[in-house]
Amino acid sequence: MKEKLSLICDRLLSHQQIACCQSFFGIPHHGKDLLIYNILDLQKKPLLLIGHHGVVSAMTFGNAMSPVLLCSASADYIIVWDVQKCQKQTQKGELPTGKVIGTLLGKIIHLSFCFCDERVAACTEAAIYILSPKTQETLSRLTGHLGPLTSAEFCPWNENVLISTSEDRTFKVWDLNTETVVYQSFVLSAFPLLNVMFLESERFLIVGSADEQVFCYSIGDNHKFSPVTKMDLQKLEKRYKVQRRNMSHEAEVGESSTEDQVETSKPILALFCPLRNKNIHEIDDSWCCIGSSDGLYVVDLATSELSKVLYFKEISSLSIHMAGAWSISPKFENTMLVLVSSLFTPRVALMEMCLGDLEKIENGDEGLSVFPSSPPLHRSSLNTELKMKEPSNPKKKGSVQEQPLVFHSKVKSSGYTSSPRQVMFSPKTNAQKKSPPKKSKNVSSLHTDYPAEDAAPTIPCTDLSLVNNQVLCLQHSGHDKPVRSVSWSLSRQYWLSASEDLSLRMWTHCSSEPAIVMGDGMFSKPIRGAQFYYLDKFVLLGSGPSLHLYLYNVDVTSDDIKRYHQRSVFKLATRLKTSSTEITAMSAINDFLSYIVLVCGSDRSIQVVDMNRGGVASTMAEAHSRSIHCITQNKGSRFCTQTSDLYNLFLTSANTDGLKLWDLRTMRCVRRYDSHVIRCHPCFSSISPCGRFIATGSEDNCAYIYDIRSSLHLHKLHRHTDTVLSVSFNPAKPELLTGTLDGKLRLFQTNSRPD
């Protein structure tokens, strides 16, 4: 960001609407006149426009490139000027004139053109006036807010829709055809709402308030507004500073400095979207630029995170360090023009900002992937093998070996215990030869691929009530406390159960008794997660601050004399201690060989553990505002294939902080999902085998399905009787199973599946 021009004004222009476009910018002069500067030739004498009798309180440029229209307002007149026509009049020695489109409407707070420049919305403290620059008529007068108005903007894809904000802390959606309110928001903040912006590519409405809050809504059909996310600029800035410090590998230096301890108020003074250019790949359609009092903040609406911050105080060439008002206009050649007025001094500055300066922060760590790039190291714990002792049963010389008492393998019963025969033998005279049963050819279901193009499963088909309590565990498993983790092996022959009784049990599908029991003081903290790992070679679990990796061998043979003697064995291969006080969630891929284990800690961090090297490869601090209780990797399915890049995506969830999608290669959040409700219960999530959908539980007695590419929920599955805690996709066919707090299961299918 560089300063092109700085001007000293004759009066303070903070908290007043100023105007800037691609070719011109304007400021009030002596209160009631206007000075219009040519941006293409700043050395040229500014154009002086005279016509108001009162103090100019607001001004704005139109959207068309030609003619360039300027609307200015005072308490007596609202005037529309054709700037290019006024320049020609000045060159001829004539007095520039404009069209008066409104008279004696009161003090104007805000002005805006519609996108075809055929209508102007003028906000006074009590009403909105819709004016016509062509006919110079007042088309309508809109009232309804309980406080003074602050802004009004036309919808870019429907110019008959106007949205207004007010100091009553609400926004209203107006239908200009009927002059009625079609939607009114709740009270959103404790402070006034200042401005709105439309993001046409996503059909989003962005609302900013005076207390640093940014609200994002999705605009659907029939004026249906759905909340997408809510952001606090102060909290975003704190996470941004932590992220920038971690990526630059700085120690915690300067964190306690006086400068960092002073918090500056950050009202949302301006909202705008940078134009996308094909030559700049870093600029995303979901980016939103926020002009505040201390600088420019670039927010990625897909992730609700800051991508870049440009502070005025860090740019020594700027003459303004605290802003009172903003006006932004896009320009060619990947730059934007910003007109800023000073908060405390009568000064304005024209700044040019290169869109390349808004590129995202890149992670300093090497790019990580779930796919190994080289064989395991020679001393890697993944090469550890379990050495089994061969049974030693020496034969005693001269001993009598066991011999059968009869010569046949089967002995026919004597029949003493059977009931006497009531019917004598009778031959069958009409016996027909039976053809041998044909083998069923319906085995295609075992090899059918997952229908990756099918819709999400949303149709309920089966309900099952297990107990009249929350689905947390089944007490017949042999654990003494609730079971918190269950995991199948890749072969589906074994499964694990981890409990709060500090034990882990491995089960086989053909036995009601555990094959392996890990307990007896082996773990000092509850096991937060356990699973099979490295193609079922290991058992991986997290307890306390450490990851435990065990080799195992299951022996299900039994001896009647030593029935309770455990023949199965296990051995600790390695134990890795993380930097967290306690592991709250963990995940690893077992479907193919992978060195990566993802660990979430009580310090709200995400750590990437490289089991090949035996250490933490990367750490993302402050990943959520609270401890993460769920981490879900995109593990795919053997019935469906995905591109290799998709396997590097994973989800994390924390109470009151929504659901985040991360990319392991950059260790950055790439999207955020906030439509569901998660405040106190640990609701879990799941990724579909095709990688297209995300399902999550919610506390509003619904399950939500998202398209992984959009922050808006795709489906909301109703008819649950309590909080939906857990969800799971079927790996072989498009089905979704949900479990609720009151112990009920529900199965959902797609409408394309036959009954």
Automatic annotation (TrEMBL):
<dbReference type="InterPro" id="IPR042411">
    <property type="entry name" value="WDR27"/>
</dbReference>
<feature type="repeat" description="WD">
    <location>
        <begin position="476"/>
        <end position="507"/>
    </location>
</feature>
<feature type="repeat" description="WD">
    <location>
        <begin position="717"/>
        <end position="755"/>
    </location>
</feature>
<dbReference type="InterPro" id="IPR011047">
    <property type="entry name" value="Quinoprotein_ADH-like_sf"/>
</dbReference>
<dbReference type="InterPro" id="IPR015943">
    <property type="entry name" value="WD40/YVTN_repeat-like_dom_sf"/>
</dbReference>
<dbReference type="InterPro" id="IPR001680">
    <property type="entry name" value="WD40_rpt"/>
</dbReference>
<protein>
    <recommendedName>
        <fullName>WD repeat domain 27</fullName>
    </recommendedName>
</protein>
<feature type="compositionally biased region" description="Polar residues">
    <location>
        <begin position="412"/>
        <end position="432"/>
    </location>
</feature>
<keyword id="KW-0853">WD repeat</keyword>
<feature type="repeat" description="WD">
    <location>
        <begin position="142"/>
        <end position="184"/>
    </location>
</feature>
<dbReference type="Pfam" id="PF00400">
    <property type="entry name" value="WD40"/>
</dbReference>
<dbReference type="InterPro" id="IPR036322">
    <property type="entry name" value="WD40_repeat_dom_sf"/>
</dbReference>
<feature type="region of interest" description="Disordered">
    <location>
        <begin position="411"/>
        <end position="448"/>
    </location>
</feature>
